[in-house]
Amino acid sequence: MKHSIFTLLLAIGAFFCGFAQDNLTQYVNPRIGTGGHGHVFLGANVPFGYVQLGPTEHTRGWDWCSGYHDSDSVLIGFGHQHLSGTGVGDLGDVAFLPVADAGQEEIVFHHSNESVRPGYYALKLERPNVWVELTATRRAGFHRYTFGADMAKAQLVLDLHQGIGYDKPADYALDRITDTTISGHRHSTGWAKNQKVFFSAEFSQTVSVEPLDSGRWLLTAADVSQPLMIKVGMSAVSVDNAAENLHKEIPGWDFRKVVADADKAWNDELSKVRIETADATYRRIFYTAMYHTMTAPSVFSDVNGQYRGADGEVHQGDFTNYTTLSLWDTYRAAHPLMTLIHTDMLPDIAKTFINIHRQQGKLPVWHLMGNETDCMVGNPAIPVLADLVLKGYVADKEGAYEAMKQSALKDERGLDLLKKYGYLPYDKDANRETVAKGLEYALADWCVAKVARLLGKKADAKYFGGRAMSYRKYFDPETTFMRGIGTDGKFREPFNPFSADHRQDDYTEGNAWQYTWLVPHDVHGLVKLFGSERRFTQKLDSLFIVTGDLGAGASPDITGLIGQYAHGNEPSHHVLYMYNYVGQPWKGARLLRQTMTELYRDDPDGLCGNEDVGQMSAWYILSSMGLYQVEPAGGRYIIGSPLFNKATMQVSGDKTFTIVATDNSKENIYVQSAKLNGKRYTKSYILYDDIRKGGVLELQMGNKPSAWGTKSADRP
């Protein structure tokens, strides 16, 4: 029963022939971002699922954070949990590997023998001769292994020792074994310091279980005439919950149905945005970007409502709890995108944040599998939660506000210095990065102040509004850069605006050229620091032209450079839209088109930086439709230069919001005029409430800059 790749492709084609021609999953290329520095997961999952089932390779460095890299061809297992687009490696839990004999620990494979689409992964192996197929539900993985006729028996190794990146096993065991089931647990430490995983696996035929070396077991099925199927339920709570998750989500053995259900789940989510374009490449990039934004946040509660909280205890919830919260990245575009097309999730996202605060004493910073990693800087959950409050998705506004306020008043991560000095002096913070932290805290404080005003808390609004202006302290009017400043009131010397020393200087994964613009909450205030719009614009123009040596210690995240603008790293993502604030939207339009068409490609190295758990793709989705939320919370979306002739979002219930770009082309990139619901519209931004109501925004495009959006009254 040997399978050629041709036979494999025929089978896969037949498998999916029943899907409708307009099924949007056909436009997804899951390989985008699996090469270069993309760090993207490749395998089978469903939108926002706890399970990401796919191949795992040896960890060979930073580019293997997801457990997979397109340049590699050696497998060590098919694990049930992977990260996508992170800068740190972890997970890889509960891995199966088909083997020719008990001594085999890895498999050489060929990428040409892989086939992958949303919710389905297939690979034809040569040694052993096995056709591997994987699919998934939210909390369970489904394997199908078809062994060749030359195989005397079907053998797989279960590996509970194996992990990705920093992950190290702390405790593991098979707790229950029968002829057709096994269950157990894996506890580990790594990026997530105390991760607990429980699993329950059922086999389609009798298997024998033989312990091998530490953390590995040989599973053998005698009948190779039929595929060996394995269903694996996963839980962070208990083995019993893992079994319940499995029985609820995969009650039978119909592999094709589970694949079809996964495809439908993806198509339902992808169809929340419909685009019209004659460019097939742009269509693939767009829907792949949509796909990438829905790996996380990940469901982190079981079908019975139980979840493991940030305090390590098991809680009973009346909501869906989430994890994998890469907030320093995602508050900028991924979460504002969610408020447009995933509104059904937002109340539970808010409850997740509020409960994390109650359980660990602060809002999440970077939450992974119930663990606070404290990765990156600032208070990035505050903009997300404030945005949800201001847009009307939080029932417990007082609880949300208290979580934001108390998180902003902690005495950790430099906040004690902010309270004492009104800024973060570089000579008092042993953890460095004071400019980056200070700017991030300022924008978060602006969000707290905005919610405080909404709730009538005048004293708090005044206090946090004042702290939000602390960004001014880092601005050096002589050099017009944001710089490290000491307790003596003097800026750090020597100073080189190009220099970057990864996590060892005043910035976070960037330099002074990139961080000078990190004032999205008060762009007009930043303009005033420069002295005039002319001087501000001259400096902004220079950003996209100047070049210089970043130094040997520069972060590998500083990528996607246009001059010193670094699209590969998130602090730069709003900068292109700052031109609208000074009445020159045409300058942003040119650069937006350049970024979208040059830095996003339809190939494995198609991302200019790592995916950052959906942020890189969310920027593209919003920008390609012609919108971007610069201010961290509140819902003012700046109008840019749409890549598509038409984009329609399902914004709430049966309401849609459509952006039409008339006469759009590669040359016609500038907005000439606009209409909102048939009426003349002169502003270079649009409010969230207007989008949420549904309607049509018509943009007349042309090949020359125009006066549209340039008047002071029409600027954001």
What does this structure look like?
This protein is of the alpha+beta class and 716 residues long. It has a domain of 269 residues: Beta-galactosidase, Chain A, domain 5 (Distorted Sandwich). The protein contains 18 helices and 35 strands. The strands form ten sheets. Strands 5-6-7-8-15-12-11-10 form an eight-stranded antiparallel beta sheet. Helix 7 packs across helix 9, helix 8 runs antiparallel to helix 9 and helix 9 runs antiparallel to helix 11. It is globular and about 80 Å long.
Topology:
Layout: H1 5-15, E1 54-57, E2 74-79, E3 95-98, E4 107-108, E5 114-117, E6 120-125, E7 130-136, E8 140-147, E9 154-159, E10 168-177, E11 181-189, E12 195-203, E13 208-211, E14 216-221, E15 228-235, H2 239-249, H3 255-270, E16 273-276, H4 280-292, E17 298-299, E18 306-308, E19 314-316, E20 322-323, E21 325-326, H5 327-330, H6 334-341, H7 346-360, E22 366-368, E23 371-372, H8 381-390, H9 397-408, H10 415-421, H11 434-454, H12 458-468, E24 475-476, E25 481-482, H13 512-515, H14 523-530, H15 533-543, E26 561-562, E27 565-566, H16 585-598, H17 615-625, E28 627-629, E29 636-639, E30 646-652, E31 655-662, E32 670-676, E33 679-680, E34 685-687, H18 688-692, E35 695-702
Parallel strand pairs: 31-35
Antiparallel strand pairs: 1-2, 2-4, 3-9, 5-6, 6-7, 7-8, 8-15, 9-14, 10-11, 11-12, 12-15, 13-14, 16-30, 17-20, 18-19, 21-22, 22-23, 24-25, 26-27, 28-29, 29-34, 30-31, 32-33, 32-35
